[in-house]
Design brief:
10-stranded mixed β-sheet
């Protein structure tokens, strides 16, 4: 049941457009005429999975009379919207700093990540998505900085997925024995080949599947999503890449904390984790049957190996002065 490093595909255009459309305005799922309504605020990519998980939760005794409003978008934008007043009972973001922003605003408890799974509900890895048949013969990171190769990735100052892409690209240099200067040089060369930066990972997928670019930096689950929805793409799992960890939490502002916590517990149940697996995410709990036997890259590393999100956020993604602010400024991309 092992997934090869390069997967063939047949299966998206209309589905991605529909998903992006829903992401922009949110959607509502109902389970009963009366009961509690929870607000789910999430990053763009797990929409299909969460809609299925909500349906499964509604079929349980605890979830029978619970309805949901759902909002999906770029992880950083969603996090900032909650701080600005967007109603949220349950949040699901691409990366830890977007939850940390809510902790600092007293909207999520400081101990949110002390659970068995450190607050995470899914894992993934950064992969290289290519056209069907891999016509540009993309084999690894070194190919992405070659002249004439167009790379698609989202803007790391709005998209959590894009930040994972940046740290995968930088980290593979460091893990290969390079210095910080070598890693920064690679990022400059890489982003010089990026013609467009959308504000979310899902929009970058739409851009790529509409025909722009030679390779897309993406979550493994996004590549699988594209395959499931009819796109003629392949993808390569690099030997050296980063483990993506996606967190979720219940907000302290929730008017229904008991029900929100019940939903979070359900998200970590075998039923929900199986749904995530079927949608291309790597489950965080053991014993989940999946249609994908996710390969473990020989050079897999974590954000902790690169200093952890506190240091990484300051050094790489501070719009007032950081490695990526400098990279983006050189190619004329706004970081404000």
């Amino acid at each position: 049941m092992r997934v090869p490093k390069t997967l063939p595909v047949h299966l998206l255009g209309i589905a991605i457009v529909a998903a992006v459309g829903l992401s922009a305005c949110g959607s509502t799922s109902t389970s009963s005429a009366a009961g509690v309504q929870l607000s789910l605020v999430a990053y763009s990519t797990p929409q299909a999975a969460y809609e299925q998980i909500i349906s499964a939760f509604n079929a349980t005794t605890q979830g029978k009379k619970i309805t949901f409003t759902q909002s999906y978008g770029a992880s950083g934008d969603q996090s900032r919207a909650v701080v600005a007043g967007l109603d949220a009972d349950y949040v699901a973001f691409s990366l830890e700093p977007d939850v940390t922003r809510l902790v600092k605003a007293n909207l999520v408890a400081a101990d949110w990540n002390t659970s068995k799974y450190a607050g995470n509900v899914t894992d993934s890895v950064v992969v290289l998505v290519v056209r069907k048949g891999n016509p540009k013969n993309i084999k690894g990171w070194a190919d992405l900085t070659k002249p004439g190769i167009e790379v698609i990735t989202a803007n790391p100052f709005t998209s959590g997925g894009a930040r994972w892409n940046v740290m995968a690209a930088y980290g593979q240099v460091i893990k290969g024995g390079g210095t910080q200067a070598d890693g920064v040089a690679y990022l400059n060369a890489l982003f010089a080949n990026v013609p467009v930066q959308d504000d979310s990972a899902r929009k970058s997928l739409q851009t790529f599947t509409s025909g722009k670019g030679d390779v897309l930096l993406a979550y493994e689950n996004e590549a699988i999503f594209a395959q499931q929805n009819g796109q003629d793409i392949d993808y390569v799992v690099p030997d050296s890449t980063i483990l993506i960890e996606n967190p979720s939490a219940v907000t302290t502002s929730s008017k229904h904390p008991e029900q929100a916590k019940a939903f979070l517990d359900f998200v970590l149940s075998p039923t929900a984790q199986t749904i995530f697996a079927k949608n291309g995410y790597r489950p965080v709990i053991d014993g989940i049957t999946s249609p994908y036997d996710f390969p473990t890259p020989s050079g897999l590393f974590t954000i902790a190996d690169l200093g952890g999100w506190t240091d990484v956020s300051k050094n790489f993604f501070d719009p007032k002065g950081s490695i990526m602010a400098d990279v983006e400024t050189k190619i004329g991309v706004s970081v404000g």
